[in-house]
Amino acid sequence: MRRFTTLEELRLARLPPTVNAAVENALTKEIDLGGTDYDPDNTGSVWLIEPQDSDSSITEKLGSPFAELLFEKVHHHPEQKLFIAYLVRNNSRCDTLIIPDSDWLPEAWAVSLISQT
Q: What is the pLDDT of residues 13-65, one digit of tens each?
């Protein structure tokens, strides 16, 4: 999983265009909502799920295996081959997960996401 907290981090990542656009949109919203008080450790971050991620890496960063994550909302964008999921951690923190809808995405994870759309 790759965490993005600044637009500079995103610029340096050199992501594919559709993934970059999704991360930029989510990150811009986080920064705008936080204003001068933007604190990604307390208000939320943008995370990109990548091919090497596993339940152990998800659990390490988010506290539970992927299939056990209960998202507030999941959007599927088939034309961009992306899922965008919102994970509310507490009253003041919501993390956004950008999840490519790719062949490498474990079937159980895709089923979990689709069931929450």
A: 999 999 999 999 999 998 888 888 888 988 889 999 999 999 999 999 999 99
Cα 78 from Cα 43, distance rounded (Å): 28
The whole-number pLDDT of residue 108 equals 93
Structure tokens at 105: 């995405």
Can you say whether the dihedral through the CA atoms of 96, 19, 1, 115 is positive or negative? positive
- Domain boundary assignment for the chain: 2-115
CB 36, CB 29: distance < 8 Å = no
Please answer whether residues 48 and 2 qualify as being in contact, where contact means their C-beta atoms are separated by less than 8 angstroms. Answer: yes
What six digits make up the tokens of 107?
Answer: 């079937």
Distance CA 53, CA 17 (A): 21
